[in-house]
Design a protein that fits this description.
The complex is a heterotrimer. Chain A is α+β, with helices and mostly antiparallel strands. Chain A is 18% helix and 29% strand. By secondary structure, chain B is of the alpha+beta class. Chain B contains 4 helices and 11 strands, in the order E-E-E-H-E-E-E-H-E-E-H-E-E-E-H. In chain C, helix 13 crosses helix 15 and helix 19 crosses helix 24. The chains are: A alpha+beta, B alpha+beta, C alpha+beta. Chains in contact: A-B, A-C, B-C. Chains B and C meet through strand 7 and helix 4 of B and strand 9, strand 16 and strand 40 of C.
Chain lengths: 108, 189, 1004
C-alpha cells in the first residue's frame, strides 16, 4: 500500500486516494504516424526491475496528474514531480544515480 | 426558488456527534490563475476573503474560499446569490482564461458537531486526522468510505463535509453509522 | 485429571463465577478465564477431533498458537466457527461447541480414518479417487465435501457491526511484554506519538509467569510502574485486545481490535475494529512461541506445551494433570517441572535428550528431588482420549522401552521460535541461529519503506533474545532507534534483570533418533492438518524438495494456525530427509494476517445499505413511490418501467412505449453526464476529443458526437451544445460522466497542458427531464415562460429561459424519434419541475416512462447504445457512423488507430437491422448468426451477432440490431440465429432504422 506525496497539493496520499496511470513520459503518436511509432506508443511499455517512472493521479484529492520515480523491487520512492514535463528533473536523476549506481539512467 | 430543496432536506442524526444536513449552500467552482490580482480581487468581492493558501479554506463575511487544486477554488456564498455572483465573476474576469460555474445543487453539505469529529472522520478517510496535519481550516479532499469528499474543521468541535448530491444519502448514512453511540475509538479525544 | 487449583491464577477473579455451556453441558468458570482454561478447570481435556483422521485432540497451548481447541461459539446471528478456546474470553452465558465430529465428540465415526493412515498419506488427494471417473461426481466428491472443512458455516446473518479506523502514528509497537513496554517507554519519552498494542488483556508477557526479577523486584512491579508512566504520556496510546495483524508496504499495518468479544453479544458499538495504521516505524515485540517435540503419540490429549502448563497454573490456577512427565531439549522446560512441583503436583520424571545438565534450572529441579533422565526420550505416549503413560527410551536408539511411566499429562518443550511474522510480512529476512536453534530477524535485511530504509525493528524475544536482561537491553535500543528514525531524540537506561545461567539447547527434531516407521507414522508435526513426520519424509522421497512444494503437498502449515507450532519442526524433518541444513531448506512465506481475523472486520461498515454507494437522482424518491421498478445503471438506479396496479413488467413497458408515441411521456434523464469545456482552445480540444468537427458548431446549437479511445474503439457518445464562443457543454452516457471528465482532464494535464481549456463536471447540478411525444410542446406551452415553437426552438438547438417559473434550458434533442425536449433545471428544483410537468401533462396523456421504453424506442429508430452496440472492440465505422467522423480534421483521438489494417478490413462485422421472419420471434440477446459451415475446430462458423433485440409494440414486430459480416451489402438476405434450445430463428437483414426514416415525427 503505497504512500505518495502529491507535488501539487503537498498531501501525502494513500494509494487508495490515487489512480495509477502506467509508464510516464510516453510520446504520443497520432494521425500520420508510421506503424512502428504508433505500435510503440500504443503497446510498448517498460517493465523494469528497479527504477521506474510512473504516472499517478491524485483522483480523490486535487485531481492532478503527477509523476513518481519508484523502485519496482523495493518500492522505494525517489521522488514525485510535475506531470507536465517531458523527462524527470535533473536533481531527481542525480539523486537516483547516487542511490542506485548501477542504474542505466533515464531512457525515454 | 421557494421550491428548491437540498439533497437530505434538513436531516439530523444525533449520536456520539451530531450530523446535520446543512441545507441549501451556494457553491461556485472557479477555475483560473490563482496568482492573478484580478482573480484575487474578484474572489474578495464575492466572498470577502483572500485567496486561500494551498490546501486551506478562508472564511469571510460574505462567504468562504476553499483551495481545491492549483487552478481551482470552491467559493461558498449565499445560495440565492450564486447565479448573480457567477455572472459578476464572468464579468470581472472577462478576457482572462477562467471558468466559473454554479455547483450549489451538485453537492450535499453536512456539518458535524461534537468532540469526536476527528474520530468519526478517521473511520472512513485514510487522511491523517491529527491536529498537526489537519489543522483548523485545512481543507482535505480525500475519500470517506468509498466516496470522494472534502472536509475541514472550523473548530475542534465542528466539521463540514461536502460530497456529491447523488450520494448525499449514502454519506449521511455512513456518517450516522460511524457516529453511533459507544463506537468512538477515542484516538483523537 | 485437569482441575482448578486451590490457589493462584493472577488473571482470574474467583469472586465472580461465570456460567457457560459447552456441547450442551452447563459449566462454571471465573471472570478472567479463557474458554480453554475453564474447560481444563472442568476436567475437559478432550476438546475436538482432528481434521483428517478424526483423532481425539486436547488443548495444547494457552495462546493464539493453539492448533486443536477450535470451537463454534455463540448462537444464530452471533455464531462463529473455528474460535480458539485459548483466546476466547469467558463471558456469562457463552455457548460453545466442539467441532469436526459425528455423531459426538466422544464417539466419532470419522475416527475410522485413523485406522487407515496408509490410505491417507501425503498427497492422497492427488493419488486417490482417480478411477472410475464417474465415481468422482457421485461418490467421492459428496463424501469428501461432507467431511471437509473445519467447523460449520454460520446460517444466520451476522448481527454484529464492524468498522475501520485509520490512524497515523510515529511509532507502532506490537506486544505488551516487557520488551514492548520498555520500547514504548523509551519511544514515548522522546515525544513521538506511540501506539502500543497487546493482543491479550494483560501486560508483562512471560516475564511475570516465569518469575523474572527487574531491578531487584518481581517483573509485575516493574510492569505496573511502566504502564503507569506510559498512561501519563499524552503522546502514548495503549490498546489491549488488539493484535498486530499484518505489515504492508510503506509503513502500513493492520491492527485487529476486539472490542466486545469478552462481553458477549448485543453490546453497544462495533464488535471488531480494523485499524489501518500508517506509521514511520514498527517495533515488533511479539515474543516467541514454544515448539512441540516430535514423538509418537504427541497428539494424545494431555500432551501440552510446557510453557502453557505453567501459564495455566500461574494465570488461571488450573492444573492440566496430576502426574506430568516433562520432556524437553532445553533448560526452559525445567521451569514447568519446578512450577508444577511448587504447585504441589507430581512430576514423575523429566526426560531430556541432552547429556550435560549443568544449567541452573536442571540443577534446581534435581535439588528439588525431581527425577531427571538425561540422554533419554519418549518412545511413545500411550492413551486414547487422554494420556495414560509414556515409555522411556534412549534418545540414541530406535525406541526400545526401558520403562513405562504412568502419567496423565506430558509437558513438552522443543525450544522457542521468535514470532517473526510481522517482520517477515513485508520482506524482512531471517537468519538461522545454530546455537539457539531458531530463525531470527536479520537486522541488516529489514523490510524497506518509502525512503528505502528499514521500517520494522524486531526486538526482545521476537528478535531472538531469550533472556530478560538482553531482552530489556534490546528493547531500549529498539525504542531509541525507532524514535530517532521517526525524527525524535530518545534516551533511556536499561533496567537490570536477572536470568538463570542456561545450558545450550539440543537441536532434537524428533525422538528417539532412530524412530521406526511405525513410531514416525504416529508422530505429528501439524496437529490441525494431521501431518506426520512420515508424511514429510514421503514428500521428500517423492521429490518435493522445495519447502514451498513440500508444504503444499503435505499441507503442513496450511491450516488456520498457519503452522505456528509445526513449521520449524517440519522444516527440520524435511532438511534431515534431504540431508541438508535447515537454512538451506529455508522457510515458507509468512503472510498476513498473523492470526485469523473476522470477515466482519475485513468488510467493515460496507454492508447492508452501506455496501455500495448508490447514486440517486433528484427524482429518485418520487420514482420509488410511483411504481418504479429499479435497475442499476452504472452506480445510479433508474426505473426500468413504472408498474401500475396489476401490471407485469412487459405490460408496463408496452404501455409506456405506446403512450409516449401516441401522447406524451416523461423521462428522468438526470443521470446523463454534463461537462463544461471552456477556454480559448476549447474548440481545438473538442475537435481532438470527438470524432466529429465540434469547433464549427454554432452557439445555441446541438450536435451528436462520438468519443473514441486511442485504440480507435468507441468509448462514449452524447449531445454537445455550444453555450458560448468559448464554452461547450458535453453530455455523456449515464455511466460515463466521471470517466469522461477524468479522460478530458488527463489529456489536458498530461498532453496538451499548454492549451487554455478548463473543464467542470456539472452532472449533478441539473435535473434533466425529457418531455417526449406528440403532445410535448403542448405541455410546455401550458407551463409557459418560454417560446418553444419550432421557429423559436428548432430541432437540435437549445435556449435558456424560464419554464413554469424555474430557470430552465430546454434542448430540442430526441433519442426516441418523437418531438422531444430535454430540459435541464437546477437539481434542487428537479422534483418541483417534475411535479409541474406531470400536472400540466395530465390532460395530454402524460405518463412517466423508464429505461426499457427508452431502449425500445431508440432501437426502433436505429440509434446505437454505448454498451449494447459497443463492447470495447467496436469502432464507429462498424456502426455505420462514418457521417459522424470528420474527414477534414488533421487528428482526433482514435483517428490513427482506425487506419490500421485490421480496422479497415472489409470483413469487419457491421451494423444492420434484423427483422425476424416470424414477427413474434424475439432473437435472444447476444445470439450469434451462423452460415451453415463449420470451422476446423468443429464449431459452427459465426458471421455476426445480435447487439440489441426487442419486441416493438409500435410496429407489432420483433426487431433487432446486430453486427454482421458484410452486413450492409446483404440487405434482404435471411440469416440463421441458432438458439440455446437448438431452434433457429431466421431474420432478414434490413436497415437498422425501423421507424420514420425521414424523421418526420421528431422534426415538427
Amino acid at each position: 500500500m503505497l504512500l505518495l506525496t502529491c507535488p501539487y497539493c503537498g498531501v501525502e496520499a494513500d494509494e487508495t486516494e490515487l489512480t495509477p496511470g502506467g509508464e510516464a513520459h510516453i510520446t504520443r503518436h497520432g494521425a500520420g504516424a508510421n506503424d512502428d511509432d504508433f505500435e510503440t506508443y500504443l503497446f510498448m511499455r517498460k517493465n523494469p526491475k528497479g527504477v521506474h517512472f510512473e504516472r499517478w493521479r491524485h483522483a480523490f484529492g486535487c485531481g492532478k496528474w503527477f509523476h513518481a520515480a519508484r523502485c519496482t523491487m523495493t518500492l522505494e520512492v525517489f521522488g514525485t514531480y510535475s506531470g507536465q514535463t517531458f523527462e524527470p528533473p535533473k536533481t531527481l536523476i542525480n539523486k537516483i544515480k547516487k542511490k542506485r549506481p548501477d542504474w542505466e539512467g533515464f531512457v525515454k | 426558488m421557494s421550491n428548491a430543496v437540498s439533497a437530505l432536506q434538513d436531516a439530523v442524526f444525533k449520536g456520539s456527534v451530531t450530523i446535520k444536513d446543512a441545507g441549501l449552500q451556494g457553491m461556485i467552482t472557479l477555475r483560473g490563475d490563482l496568482s492573478s490580482d484580478a482573480l484575487a480581487k474578484a474572489v474578495k468581492t464575492a466572498t470577502g476573503t483572500a485567496i486561500p493558501e494551498t490546501g486551506c479554506i478562508n472564511s469571510g463575511k460574505k462567504g468562504a474560499a476553499a483551495w481545491m487544486s492549483p487552478d481551482e477554488l470552491l467559493l461558498l456564498v449565499d445560495y440565492a446569490q450564486a447565479e448573480t455572483i457567477v455572472a459578476k465573476l464572468d464579468k470581472a474576469l472577462a478576457g482572462t482564461h477562467m471558468l466559473a460555474s454554479n455547483v450549489s445543487d451538485a453537492r450535499a453539505v453536512f456539518t458535524i458537531e461534537g468532540k469526536g469529529i476527528r474520530d468519526v472522520l478517521a473511520k472512513g478517510s485514510p487522511a491523517d486526522m491529527s491536529a498537526g496535519t489537519l489543522g483548523i481550516n485545512t481543507l482535505r479532499r480525500t475519500r470517506l468510505g468509498q466516496l470522494p469528499v472534502a472536509f475541514w474543521l472550523g473548530s475542534e468541535t465542528t466539521a463540514t463535509v461536502i460530497c456529491f448530491r447523488s450520494v448525499g444519502e449514502h454519506v449521511f448514512n455512513w456518517l450516522s453509522t460511524a457516529a453511533q453511540k459507544g463506537s468512538l475509538p477515542g484516538h483523537y479525544t | 485429571m485437569s482441575t482448578r487449583l486451590q490457589n493462584g491464577g493472577r488473571l482470574i477473579d474467583r469472586t465472580k463465577q461465570i456460567e457457560f455451556t459447552w456441547n450442551g453441558k452447563r459449566l462454571q468458570g471465573f471472570q478472567g478465564d479463557t474458554l480453554a482454561s475453564a474447560l481444563l478447570a472442568n476436567n475437559q481435556m478432550l476438546v475436538g477431533r482432528s481434521f483428517k483422521y478424526h483423532r481425539p485432540r486436547g488443548i495444547v497451548a494457552a495462546g493464539p498458537e493453539e492448533p486443536n481447541a477450535l470451537m463454534g461459539t455463540g448462537v444464530d446471528g452471533h455464531f462463529e466457527p473455528n474460535q480458539r478456546a485459548t483466546t476466547t474470553e469467558l463471558y456469562q452465558g457463552l455457548t460453545s461447541h466442539s467441532q469436526n465430529h459425528w455423531p459426538s465428540l466422544e464417539i466419532d465415526i470419522g475416527a475410522l480414518n485413523s485406522k487407515l493412515p496408509r490410505f491417507f498419506p501425503a498427497g492422497f488427494y492427488y493419488k486417490t479417487f482417480m478411477y472410475p471417473r464417474a465415481a468422482w461426481k457421485h461418490v467421492f466428491e459428496p463424501i469428501i465435501r461432507k467431511s471437509a472443512g473445519l467447523g460449520k458455516a454460520p446460517t444466520h446473518k451476522d448481527e454484529d457491526t464492524y468498522e475501520y479506523f485509520y490512524a497515523h502514528v510515529d511509532i507502532m509497537i506490537v506486544g505488551g511484554g516487557i520488551a514492548g513496554l520498555a520500547a514504548a517507554l523509551t519511544a514515548g519519552k522522546s515525544g513521538a506519538s506511540v501506539l502500543l498494542m497487546e493482543q491479550g488483556v494483560s501486560f508483562g508477557g512471560r516475564a511475570i509467569t516465569d518469575g523474572v526479577e527487574i531491578d531487584g523486584k518481581p517483573a509485575a512491579t516493574w510492569v505496573k510502574a511502566t504502564l503507569a508512566a506510559l498512561k501519563k504520556m499524552p503522546n502514548v496510546q495503549i490498546r489491549t485486545r488488539m493484535m498486530g495483524a499484518g505489515v504492508y508496504d510503506h509503513g502500513y499495518a493492520l491492527g485487529y481490535e476486539r472490542l466486545t468479544d469478552h462481553l458477549g453479544p448485543n453490546q453497544n458499538g462495533p464488535r471488531h475494529r480494523l485499524w489501518r495504521i500508517r506509521t514511520k516505524r514498527i517495533v515488533t515485540a511479539t515474543g516467541a512461541i514454544e515448539r512441540p517435540l516430535s514423538f509418537a503419540g504427541n497428539d494424545i490429549p494431555g500432551v501440552m506445551l510446557a510453557g502453557s502448563l505453567r501459564d495455566y497454573i500461574a494465570d488461571y490456577g488450573v492444573s492440566a494433570g496430576d502426574r506430568t512427565v516433562v520432556v524437553t531439549n532445553n533448560d526452559d522446560g525445567y521451569r514447568t517441572a519446578i512450577a508444577l512441583h511448587e504447585a504441589g503436583l507430581n512430576v514423575p520424571c523429566i526426560i531430556d535428550p541432552r547429556g550435560d545438565l549443568d544449567g541452573e534450572l536442571p540443577q534446581k529441579a534435581i535439588a528439588l528431588g525431581i527425577r531427571v533422565e538425561n540422554k533419554s526420550a519418549i518412545g511413545k505416549v500411550k492413551g486414547g482420549k487422554r494420556v495414560e503413560s509414556v515409555t522411556l527410551c534412549a534418545q540414541a536408539g530406535e525406541g526400545g522401552t526401558l520403562e513405562e511411566i504412568k502419567c496423565d499429562a506430558v509437558a513438552m518443550s522443543g525450544g522457542w521460535s521468535p514470532v517473526v511474522h510481522l517482520w517477515s510480512h513485508c520482506g524482512g529476512k531471517l537468519n538461522w541461529d545454530t546455537d539457539l536453534a531458531m530463525f531470527r530477524p536479520d537486522p541488516s535485511r529489514p523490510p524497506l519503506g518509502a525512503d528505502g530504509t528499514g521500517f520494522v525493528i524486531a526486538t526482545g524475544t521476537a528478535n531472538g533474545h531469550l533472556y530478560s536482561a538482553s531482552v530489556l537491553k534490546d528493547a531500549i535500543a529498539a525504542g531509541k532507534q525507532a524514535a530517532k528514525d521517526a525524527g525524535f531524540k530518545a534516551t533511556g537506561t536499561v533496567p537490570k534483570a536477572s536470568d538463570e545461567k542456561a545450558a545450550p539447547i539440543a537441536a532434537v527434531w524428533s525422538m528417539p533418533q532412530g524412530a521406526t516407521y511405525d513410531l514416525k507414522s504416529k508422530t505429528f508435526l501439524d496437529y490441525q492438518n494431521d501431518v506426520k513426520v512420515s508424511d514429510v519424509r514421503l514428500a521428500a522421497q517423492e521429490g518435493f524438495t522445495s519447502v514451498e512444494h513440500a508444504k503444499r503437498y503435505t499441507t503442513l502449515g496450511m491450516a488456520t494456525d498457519q503452522g505456528k507450532l509445526s513449521n520449524i519442526n517440519g522444516l527440520a524433518v524435511l532438511a534431515d530427509s534431504l540431508n541438508k541444513e535447515i537454512p538451506q531448506v529455508g522457510t515458507t512465506t509468512f503472510r498476513p494476517p498473523y492470526h485469523p481475523i473476522s470477515f466482519g472486520a475485513i468488510v467493515g461498515d460496507a454492508r447492508g445499505e452501506l455496501f455500495k454507494p448508490i447514486r440517486k437522482s433528484p427524482i429518485h424518491q418520487w420514482i420509488d413511490d410511483n411504481g418504479g421498478d429499479w435497475e442499476p445503471v452504472a452506480d445510479w438506479r433508474r426505473p426500468y418501467c413504472y408498474k401500475q396496479q396489476g401490471e407485469t413488467v412487459e405490460q408496463a413497458v408496452t404501455r409506456e412505449i405506446l403512450n409516449t408515441r401516441e401522447n406524451c411521456g416523461l423521462l428522468d434523464a438526470s443521470t446523463l453526464g454534463k461537462i463544461i469545456v471552456k477556454g480559448p482552445d476549447a474548440g481545438k480540444f473538442m475537435d481532438m476529443m470527438y470524432t466529429n468537427m465540434m469547433s464549427t458548431l454554432k452557439v445555441g446549437f446541438c450536435r451528436y458526437g462520438l468519443m473514441c479511445t486511442e485504440n480507435g474503439f468507441l468509448s462514449d457518445d452524447g449531445v454537445v451544445a455550444r453555450l458560448s464562443e468559448n464554452t461547450y457543454l458535453c453530455h455523456t452516457t449515464s455511466g460515463g460522466s466521471d470517466r469522461i471528465h477524468a479522460w478530458m482532464e488527463e489529456w489536458l494535464q498530461t498532453e496538451w497542458w499548454d492549451w487554455k481549456v478548463y473543464t467542470a463536471n456539472v452532472t449533478e447540478q441539473y435535473a434533466q427531464i425529457a418531455i417526449v411525444g406528440p403532445n410535448a410542446r403542448k405541455v410546455l406551452e401550458k407551463l409557459g415562460g418560454m417560446d418553444v415553437s419550432p421557429e423559436a426552438l428548432p430541432f437540435m438547438q437549445f435556449r435558456d429561459g424560464k419554464i413554469g417559473g424555474i430557470q430552465a434550458r430546454p434542448f430540442r434533442i430526441s433519442f426516441s424519434g418523437e418531438l422531444s425536449y430535454e430540459i435541464a433545471v437546477p437539481a434542487s428544483q428537479g422534483q418541483a419541475f417534475w411535479d409541474m410537468c406531470m400536472e400540466a401533462g395530465a390532460e395530454f396523456g402524460m405518463q412517466p416512462y423508464g429505461t426499457e421504453c427508452l431502449h425500445v424506442m431508440r432501437a426502433e429508430k436505429g440509434f446505437i447504445m454505448i454498451g449494447d452496440e459497443t463492447d470495447g472492440t467496436v469502432i464507429p465505422q462498424d456502426l455505420g457512423l462514418n457521417w459522424a467522423i470528420s474527414k477534414k480534421k488533421e487528428d482526433f483521438l482514435g483517428k490513427r488507430a482506425q487506419q490500421r489494417s485490421h480496422m479497415t478490413d472489409s470483413k469487419r462485422w457491421k451494423l444492420v437491422g434484423l427483422k425476424p421472419v416470424d414477427p413474434q420471434a424475439v432473437i435472444p440477446d447476444g445470439a450469434y448468426a451462423t452460415d451453415g459451415t463449420t470451422r476446423p475446430n468443429g464449431v459452427k462458423n459465426m458471421i455476426g451477432r445480435v447487439t440489441s433485440t426487442y419486441f416493438s409494440p409500435t410496429l407489432n414486430h420483433a426487431i433487432a440490431m446486430g453486427l454482421v459480416e458484410h452486413g450492409p451489402d446483404r440487405m434482404g438476405e435471411v440469416i440463421d440465429f441458432p438458439t440455446i434450445g437448438g431452434d433457429i430463428i431466421k431474420a432478414e437483414i434490413c436497415d437498422p432504422v425501423f421507424l420514420d426514416k425521414e424523421g418526420a415525427r421528431q422534426n415538427v
